[in-house]
Amino acid sequence: MTNTQTQPKHRGMDMLHGSIADKLFFFAMPIGLMGLFEQLFNSADVFILGHFVGKNAMAAVGNNMPVIGLLVTLLIGISLGANVTIAQYLGAGKQDKVEETVQTAIVMALGLGVLLTAVGELIAHPALMILDVPADVYDLASTYLRIFLLGMPFLTLYNFEAAIFRSCGDGKTPLYSLVAANVLNISLDLLSVEIFGWGLTGVVSATVLSFAVNAGILFVLLCRTPQPIRLQRHKMRLNGTELRKILHIGLPAGIQGMVFAMSNVVIQSSINSLGTVAMAAAAASVIIEFNIYCFVNGFSQATTTFVGQNYGARKLSRCFATTKAAFWVEGLFLLCITAPILFLGKHVIGFFNPDPEVIQLGVLRLWWVADMLYLNGAMDILSGALRGYGYSLPPAIVALVGICGVRLVWIYTVFAAHRDYLTLILAYPISWIIATAVLAVVYLQCRKYILKSALTGR
Asked: Which of 186, 199, 211, 251 registers the highest number of CB atoms within 10 A of its CB?
């Protein structure tokens, strides 16, 4: 099926014509690097606090990662709703709809950011209590979380702005802005610790300020970017129809991300029960895993955008080819980056903390979690493809049962009977295997329905 409408000229990559695998790779890389630099905010905090303040400050940040992840994954998922909606309109050549969705997305981002800050402040104490944060790091963990939450409006705005740029194939502009913000963050971190002696408070305040600068840069660029994704401030208002479309796709995606985060909260609580060494090892290894996962997520979002545009243009063969290409391109890429990390595991963990016990447990986790991330990647590619078609709820349900459910059962049965570090972290690969198998079946069923709908002209 072909689209007879005139395609608007816009910046970014042409996803509707030509080869797929190479374009998918080069589009996924900036997205992966964006995630990497987003993680660098926390990585820099952990590194600087671990080397210049102490183990307790480092553990405090590690304890907050699941809570922060819970909120951040929600907003990233919802921003994907804007990405898919705009991408589908671009593929269909509906420029007026693109403009309406852009304005709606930005207004929505501002409101959502304020809401997340308020909700986060309300749940901060209960969340830390659920995590069973030890008394010797509780005050530091609470301070870090409450100050970090003040930056949520800026972080939310940035993610929606980045989603708008990605929807038309431009992944580089948000990346450049993020690099500048990270340089600022690291500089302010070092100044606050080494020069002013502000410790953890200064480090997290620098992060919030960097979030604000990052969002501000993209806001200005979005106001100056070519049509049809230009932000027009005098037209900034919520369009009910587009808002519902964004939420229809984005909210289940956000819930899916929150399911991952909630399962990590439960696992973090179990890690805390194993002692400070286990907490520090997890804090270091989780950062490495997250940095690898940034590229896993990059391929997932690239798949979503490619499928979204081509589905809007009714080019189903390119949609299916995109999903197939994503599997082998991502697999080759992960092999190239995980092999050196696993080989140099002791040095990588030691970079964050030189304690031999921390290094031992950190390396153990790398082998059983980082080495298995392709399973997570396969699941994310299938989820990304389904979101590109507009089916966001099925992968969210699979994640709820296959990820969160399996991990809860594992922790309260297997880990309860064998309370050691290896048994605990095996919850990750086990849940990925089960969820990926179920989601593959769901994807094939949805694909049959999509083909049937196309043949009947619906």
From this structure: 211
pLDDT digits (tens, 9 = 90+) for 368-402: 888 888 899 999 999 999 999 989 889 989 988 88
Q: Is 254 within 8 Å of 73 (Cβ atoms)?
A: yes
Q: What is the mean predicted confidence (pLDDT) over 2-22?
A: 67
401, with CB counted inside 10 A (0-12, 13-18, 19+), is: middle
Lowest mean pLDDT among 232-241, 288-297, 380-389: 232-241
- Structure tokens given for 382: 């299938």
pLDDT, one tens digit per residue, over 414-446 is: 998 988 888 998 999 999 999 999 999 999 999
The per-residue pLDDT for 327 is 95
pLDDT of residue 23: 93
> Tokens 């995109």, residue?
322
Give the global pTM. 0.81
Sign for the pseudo-dihedral over CA of 42, 45, 46, 48: positive
- The pLDDT score that the predictor gives to residue 333 is 94
Judge contact between 107 and 82, C-beta under 8 A.
Answer: no
Enumerate residues 6+ apart whose C-beta is below 8 A from 192. 198, 199, 201, 202, 203, 205, 206
SS (H, E, C) the chain: CCCCCCCCCCCCCCCCCCCCHHHHHHHHHHHHHHHHHHHHHHHHHHHHHHHHCCHHHHHHHHHHHHHHHHHHHHHHHHHHHHHHHHHHHHHHCCHHHHHHHHHHHHHHHHHHHHHHHHHHHHHHHHHHHHCCCCHHHHHHHHHHHHHHHCCHHHHHHHHHHHHHHHHCCCCHHHHHHHHHHHHHHHHHHHHHHHHCCCHHHHHHHHHHHHHHHHHHHHHHHHHHCCCCCCCCHHHCCCCHHHHHHHHHHHHHHHHHHHHHHHHHHHHHHHHHCCCHHHHHHHHHHHHHHHHHHHHHHHHHHHHHHHHHHHHHCCCHHHHHHHHHHHHHHHHHHHHHHHHHHHHCHHHHHHHHCCCHHHHHHHHHHHHHCHHHHHHHHHHHHHHHHHHHHCCCHHHHHHHHHHHHHHHHHHHHHHHHHCCCHHHHHCHHHHHHHHHHHHHHHHHHHHHHHHHHHHHCCC
Higher-pLDDT residue of 398, 132: 398
- Res 300: pLDDT: 93
Rounded to an integer, the average pLDDT of 80-94 is 89
